[in-house]
Amino acid sequence: MEITTGKSIELIEKAQAIRYQVFTVEQSIPNELDFDGLDCVAEHVLVTETNQAVATARLVINADGSSVMARVAVLEAYRGRGIAPLLLIS
């Protein structure tokens, strides 16, 4: 597994694809609740396995220095393998 962090458009698009599958398709959460306009200012974490993006999380750092880790999503086929904790320690 490879862990990548950053703010590139390519990374954000891969993260959004995972979130769409997990939140919108599987959990029936409306797109507008997930895609809140903060992706462009957030730091993203992406886990890939064999060139397949399988998990993501997003860190937003607020003006007061506090931060929020959210949008943690792991594709169904990869759940139960201990991937989510890797997102949080990256």
From TrEMBL:
Domain N-acetyltransferase: 43-88
Gene3D superfamilies: 3.40.630.30
InterPro entries reported in the protein's UniProt record: Acyl_CoA_acyltransferase, GNAT_dom
Name this polypeptide is given: N-acetyltransferase domain-containing protein
Record organism: Vibrio variabilis
Upper lineage: Bacteria, Pseudomonadati, Pseudomonadota, Gammaproteobacteria, Vibrionales
